[in-house]
Design goal:
Length: 212
């Protein structure tokens, strides 16, 4: 502020020292000097980026102000000084950030969709495996039931033999052998008797020679 006041005082002094023969010339020189010194002051206080916006102020507008130009420039300077440049929003930067966030959001949505597709594939594969396992379980159950039925039949036969059924069978075929009138039928019955008695082939040959 002290620098700005010194500039205004020097400008005012020069205006008073110049002869009033040519008012237009005085006004022009004063305006040009005020414009150049105001720009120098702005260059010291603000960055080059802010200075470009101030350069848009035309010198002709300051020329039209005349002797009151100092007050107007001072008022404009105070108004500009009260503005915090960091609070000024930059549309280009915001637009760039929005595009970046939109791209990131699109990437995340794509990744989520890919993960969902993979999850659906895994679920479908799991259902196929479960169905295949169920079919195998049913086939094994049917096979087990079949084997159990065969075991029950064999156990019944074994029980019949162990309870004397074999002896009853032997008695019946022995009666048939005795009542048989032909040699061919007698030989078959004799083989059956040998199987029940668990005779060896040598023993069976000896019996055949003896009887027939």
């Amino acid at each position: 502020m002290s620098i700005f006041w010194s500039i205004l005082i020097s400008v005012r002094s020069e205006q008073l020292n110049v002869a009033p023969a040519d008012p237009a010339q005085v006004s022009s020189r004063s305006s040009k000097r005020k414009s150049s010194e105001f720009k120098k002051l702005v260059d010291r206080k603000y960055s080059s980026g802010s200075r470009r916006s101030l350069d848009a102020i035309s010198v002709s507008s300051l020329d039209l102000l005349g002797t009151s130009g100092g007050c107007v420039v001072f008022a404009y300077f105070m108004t500009f000084d009260s503005i915090d440049l960091h609070d000024v929003s930059l549309p280009h930067v915001n637009e760039t950030r929005n595009i970046y966030y939109e791209d990131e959001l699109a990437k995340k949505e794509k990744e989520i969709q890919e993960m969902r597709n993979s999850l659906h594939k895994f679920e479908y594969r799991i259902r196929e495996l479960e169905q295949s396992s169920l079919c195998k379980d049913l086939a094994n159950h049917e096979l087990q039931e079949k084997f159990k039925e065969q075991i029950r039949v064999l156990e019944g036969r074994l029980k019949l033999i162990s309870d004397g059924g074999e002896l009853e069978y032997l008695r019946n075929i022995f009666v048939q052998y005795l009542s048989c009138n032909n040699n061919s039928g007698a030989k078959h019955i004799l083989k059956a008797i040998g199987m029940v008695l668990k005779l060896s082939p040598t023993e069976m040959k000896a019996i055949d020679k003896k009887i027939f």
